[in-house]
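Exercise 3.2. Students should predict the tertiary structure of the chain below and write it as structure tokens, then compare their answer with the key that follows.

Predict this chain's 3D structure.
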Amino acid sequence: MLTPQANAEGYEDAKNTKFADRLRGQLLLIVGSNDGAHLMGSVFRQPQSFIEAGQQFDMMVLLGQDHGYTGSGARFAEAYVRNYFETHLKP
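Answer key:
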């Protein structure tokens, strides 16, 4: 996609926040509080768009975790996601 400066239209078209009102079913967002790949302001734009659209969603912030979860954070997230799927994605 190049950079936002070189492809402003492409970046605008790709914004997930524009589609928050189309959310159907369950959604779990997970982010590490120390994620160096994403600025927290950017991370919280999507949840804010769900709130503004009146959409229900679930979100977990793994404290002290980076973009790739490790140790107890990784084990917790894996178990949480497994349980989330078992609870919400039943056939």
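Discussion points: The beta strands are 28-32, 58-62. Residues 58 and 71 are 23 Å apart (CA to CA).
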